[in-house]
Specification:
Elements: H1 2-21, H2 34-47, E1 49-50, H3 53-56, E2 62-67, H4 75-80, E3 84-85, E4 88-95, H5 98-101, E5 106-109, H6 117-124, E6 130-133, E7 145-150, E8 153-159, H7 160-165, E9 169-170, H8 172-177, E10 179-181
Parallel strand pairs: 2-4, 2-5, 5-6, 6-7, 8-10
Antiparallel strand pairs: 1-9, 3-4, 7-8
């Protein structure tokens, strides 16, 4: 019976991701705003990516971090309030330095960190951190997931090489909904 319940949860989550992908941003005053939608994406990414066992072992919470200027306000905190990932309570933390964020599970890198992106990605090299951003060319530069707004709709791209380098495995359901990036333009000197 547990498998049926798990399957039902997965199907509902997939449906929510699919609906969210095609939601227009602020079409009406009651529609979710851009960062409410992006917060829902972050939560769903956490549910549909597999981390190495040692990265999620123990009794610590699942940490979603924001590096740099926080564009979410309270939207992300509200989106994950009372929710769990792999039976771990979700905690949202804000960071001003990459050194503070290395032990996150999922790290949203703000546009304010654009000039530091190469250094940030080098510092995270090998750490099982799901990097996500909405800055331009993020996935092509070596980030794992890039949120893209096109015609008031949010889509996402996944850099599979970047995910594999840090030991993360996006689910096939997530991959079906994404644009796949196969290489990077980042100079990895």
């Amino acid at each position: 019976m547990k498998n049926g319940s798990s399957l039902r949860k997965i199907l509902i989550s997939i449906l929510l991701i699919g609906v969210t992908v095609f939601l227009p941003i602020q079409a009406t005053p009651s529609s979710p705003n851009e960062y409410q939608v992006k917060a829902a994406f972050l939560y769903n990414f956490a549910k549909f990516v597999e981390w190495p066992q040692e990265a999620i072992a123990g009794g610590q919470p699942f940490v979603i971090g924001i590096l740099g200027q926080d564009p979410f306000g309270n939207e992300l905190d509200e989106a994950v309030a009372g929710k769990t990932v792999r039976e771990k309570k979700i905690t949202v933390k804000r960071f001003s330095k990459i050194e503070e964020a290395i032990h996150c599970h999922l790290l949203f890198i703000s546009n304010s960190e654009d000039q530091n992106l190469a250094q940030i990605l080098r510092r995270l090299e090998g750490a099982p951190v799901l990097t996500v951003s909405d800055m331009g060319q993020f996935a092509e530069k070596g980030g794992v997931i890039q949120l893209v707004t096109d015609q008031n709709k949010i889509h996402f791209a996944i850099n599979m090489a970047a995910a594999e380098r840090v030991g993360l495995k996006p689910s096939s359901q997530l991959l079906k909904l994404s644009r796949i990036i196969t290489g990077t333009t980042q100079n990895r000197e």
